[in-house]
Amino acid sequence: MTARIVSLAEAVAELVHDGDTVALEGFTHLIPVAAGHEIIRQRRRGLTLVRMTPDIVYDQLIGAGCAAKLIFSWAGNPGVGSLHRFRDAVQHAWPVPLEIEEHSHAGMANRYVAGASGLPFAVMRGYSGTDLPAHTATVAPIQCPFTGEMLTAVPALNPDVGIVHAQRADRRGNVQFWGITGVHKEVVLASARSLVTVEEIVDELTPMPGAVVLPGWAVTRVALVPGGAHPSYAMGFSERDNDHYQAWDAISRDRDTFGQWLTEVLG
Amino acid sequence: MSWTADEMMTVAAARALRGDTRCFVGIGLPSTAANLARRTHAPDLVLVYESGTIGAKPDRLPLSIGDGVLAETADAVVSVPEMFNYWLQPGRIGVGFLGAAQLDRYANINTTVIGTDYDDPRVRLPGAGGAPEIAASCGEVIVVVRQSTRTFVDRVDFVTSVGHGKGPGDRERLGLRGRGPVLVITDLGVLEPDPGDCELTLTRLHPGVTAEQAVAATGWPLRIAPGVTTTEPPSDDELTALRSLTGAEEPA
């Protein structure tokens, strides 16, 4: 079986349902922004959104009222400041209340690793002495059966849908990406269904230094979306549009200017 | 050349990095300081960014940890699970550079919420990111933060990353492997944990800053070390290198 190549609108309609747990990943690089906008356009509701570093596309999804819950480790506009729609949802329940489940990066990364490994939990050193375990039910102490050392267990994350952006795929849906690869591989393998948006579709994948290839049979759907990571980076295709990140700060501060932005995206 | 308080803070942070130290760097002031150190006295410094780039040698300041210039110039690019599990957790990184929204007298750090009700915070901050494990596992930690009573508080509202807990022996009891914060570098001076009880003590003042100013900018009764010294002002070479990195002009 190979990944079926479909349009972005078709892929989101088919894969993402109201109430799903959805992870759009990309550790500052290769963020599937266009896919996030399509979820907004299709007006999904009640989503549990998962992402290590929710940045402006998650601010947009939250402000648009798509999310009921956020599972994350660092929420900000990288290099710029706060996420104002996220803050408004947490501090004032606007436009809807947002439940949060909060981890560290190491905790989230390990939760995906457990998910991709088909294990119920991952074990790590971390969280000791912090106030995070008191507020996060998915952090628990565990004793090493061999040494007796106390460690931390975090449960597997297995989203209903995992979405990432990549540089390219071939016509059989084999996906190739390189550069800063974040948790791309882990989230695709941990999720029940997956969508990869790509910059280009080629006849043959060209070997690239350090590239990761996910075989088509490990991916549910592939959609051709050139520029689908804008304003984030797609190494070899586009640089970060830093002005866009800075402009978002002003747009998102105010509910009305955000509303205007939203109307434009919804078309 | 004249300089700003932020430039003094950045130069002081850069000077704290020596030799071929492996340094875990975040974007912002830590990244600026680490890149300045590599351009001046510490060309062999190994810059590690949490996005997975090890030994990055950027020719300009990266805009974010996802900047292609980090991946293109690194000795190795690894996935995020590998970065945290193989490189950070076993103690392969010598120095971690952290910022703080709140910091207490034992250098415990809050970047999660302002206000004591987690579920109804006065201000929701970005959260933990990589910091708890950086604070736990790096050989030592340097905190870089502007000093004010808003930031330097008697008690942090939330412990995101452990400094020295409530005092001596706490890190060991918690199973934290590194030495924890050894320096807190601010725009006013430098604080170090007292070797006896771990309380942050002012050991250096930047040129032109008085001890009274530092005390007034601290939300607990700040101790001043008996032999408090004055930081060497930034040299022309340091300022030139810093401004070529940041694109800043000489202050008027």
UniProtKB/TrEMBL annotation, chain A:
A GO molecular function held by the record: CoA-transferase activity
Signal peptide: none
Entry keyword Transferase: yes
Entry keywords, A to Z: Transferase
SMART domains xref list: CoA_trans (SM00882)
Keyword Transferase: yes
Pfam families from the UniProt entry: CoA_trans
Domain of life: Bacteria
Alphabetized SUPFAM superfamilies for the sequence: NagB/RpiA/CoA transferase-like
InterPro entries for the chain: CoA_trans_fam_I (IPR004165), NagB/RpiA_transferase-like (IPR037171)
Record family assignment: Belongs to the 3-oxoacid CoA-transferase subunit B family.
Protein name: 3-oxoadipate:succinyl-CoA transferase subunit A
Originating organism: Actinoplanes friuliensis DSM 7358
Lineage: Bacteria, Bacillati, Actinomycetota, Actinomycetes, Micromonosporales
UniProtKB/TrEMBL annotation, chain B:
Pfam family, any one: CoA_trans
Keywords assigned: Transferase
A GO term for molecular function: CoA-transferase activity
Transferase in keyword set: yes
Disordered as annotated region, ranges: 227-252
Family matches, as Gene3D superfamilies: Glutaconate Coenzyme A-transferase
Membership in a protein family: Belongs to the 3-oxoacid CoA-transferase subunit B family.
Protein name in UniProt: Acyl CoA:acetate/3-ketoacid CoA transferase, beta subunit
Protein source organism: Actinoplanes friuliensis DSM 7358
